[in-house]
Amino acid sequence: MQVEKRTNDTSLEIKFSGNLSFSDHSAFRSLLSDVSRDGVRSCVFDLSGLTSIDSAGLGMFMIARDEAAKNGWKLTIKSPKGRVKSLFDIARFDKLLAIEA
Fold first, then answer.
1. Any idea where the domains of the chain sit in the sequence?
2. SS (H, E, C) 1-29
3. pLDDT given at position 69
4. Mean pLDDT (whole number) for 29-54
5. What CA–CA distance (Å, rounded) separates 46 from 99?
6. First to last CA, the chain
7. What pLDDT is recorded for position 101?
8. 12 close to 43: Cβ distance less than 8 angstroms
9. Which residues are CB-contacts of 3 (< 8 A; sequence separation ≥ 6)?
10. pLDDT value of residue 34
11. Under CATH, what is the fold of the domain 2-100?
């Protein structure tokens, strides 16, 4: 997993690329801690560069949802593509998370 952050006063966009799997769990949790600590009001996870995700990766987005709710920031998922989008559709994540095309 590679990430690129773009920020302004109240929001943060994080662009993910590569693969998201169980081995990224610690880095992902650290990223969530940074988002909560920085006090942003909204965070967009841009998945347009993410090429694959495993079940642990899917679970990380549930952790992100819980972290956002607990710390008062809005989480939006943006532009999942290909296999990643298919897995989000199968898991019906549109019922759990705000997802933009």
1. 2-100
2. CEEEEEECCCEEEEEEEEEECHHHHHHHH
3. 96
4. 94
5. 10
6. 21
7. 84
8. yes
9. 14, 15, 16, 17, 31
10. 92
11. Transcription Regulator spoIIAA (3.30.750)
